[in-house]
Automatic annotation (TrEMBL):
UniProt keyword annotations, A-Z: Flavoprotein, FMN, Iron, Iron-sulfur, Metal-binding, NAD, Quinone, Translocase
InterPro entries xref list: NADH-UbQ_OxRdtase_51kDa_CS, Nuo51_FMN-bd_sf, Nuop51_4Fe4S-bd, Nuop51_4Fe4S-bd_sf, SLBB_dom
Domain annotation NADH-ubiquinone oxidoreductase 51kDa subunit iron-sulphur binding: ranges: 122-167
Catalytic activity of the protein: a quinone + NADH + 5 H(+)(in) = a quinol + NAD(+) + 4 H(+)(out)
Name the UniProt record assigns to this protein: NADH-ubiquinone oxidoreductase 51kDa subunit iron-sulphur binding domain-containing protein
Length: 222
């Protein structure tokens, strides 16, 4: 048993009501409830305990009240910062472990981060990479050097100093980090970069070509 608060809080209810009761909630493979930590550009952010298997659309629009100022949804991180982003075409994915994997991401901690049309995805990758670079203990080379150089390249792109080949270099670094680190932190740093490039490479290309942000209209750090 994983001894976290969410797991332990389920134990008394399972003891009192039985395993069959708990298994009747959610989906056949992902049973029970999950605490979804909904944040980002939504009207009602918060922690919502809901049955496993509700849709991403329900979570954002029914419980979260929709996007701030009724703007368009652009992307969602469904399971914490270490999980690949999902795009609006995945809004009807069921939030259980199996379905989110099939959609191309992971449910993870169910830390759901919502981003609207005003969000620069290059900036998202930079902010998340900055976190992982700071958290790296430096023990293993792929994580220590990989997160350092990903951050430097992303800062260069954000500053309007991006160069031809930077996107390919970022993807190469991702490949040299993933699967080669002592602990999972290095692997966790990869999805933010790889998935934003996969779904929004045009924003990276615009930054590099025009020395400005496709969304904001100017380099972020200048």
């Amino acid at each position: 048993m994983i001894n976290n608060v969410e797991t332990l809080s389920n134990v008394p209810h399972i003891i009192n009501k039985g395993a069959e009761w708990f298994a009747s909630i959610g989906t056949p493979k992902s049973t029970g409830t999950k605490i979804f930590s909904l944040s980002g550009q939504v009207k009602r952010p918060g922690n919502y305990e809901l049955p496993m298997g509700i849709s991403l659309r329900e979570l954002i629009y029914e419980y979260g009240g929709g996007i701030l100022e009724d703007r368009e949804l652009k992307a969602v991180i469904p399971g914490g910062s270490s999980t690949p982003i999902l795009t609006p075409d995945k809004l009807d994915v069921k939030l259980d472990f199996e379905s989110v994997v099939e959609a191309g991401s992971m449910l993870g901690s169910a830390g759901v981060i919502v981003m609207d049309e005003t969000t620069c995805m290059v900036n998202v990758a930079w902010r998340l990479t900055r976190f992982y670079q700071h958290e790296s203990c430096g023990k293993c080379t792929p994580c220590r050097e990989g997160t350092y150089w990903m951050l430097k390249i992303l800062e260069r792109i954000e500053n309007g100093r991006g160069e031809s080949g930077d996107v390919e270099l970022l993807l190469d670094i991702c490949n040299y980090i993933e699967g080669y680190t002592v602990c999972p932190l290095g692997d966790a740093a990869v999805p933010a970069v790889r998935s934003t490039i996969e779904h929004f490479q045009e924003e990276y290309d615009y930054h590099i070509r025009n020395k400005a942000c496709m969304v904001k209209g100017k380099p972020v750090f200048k």
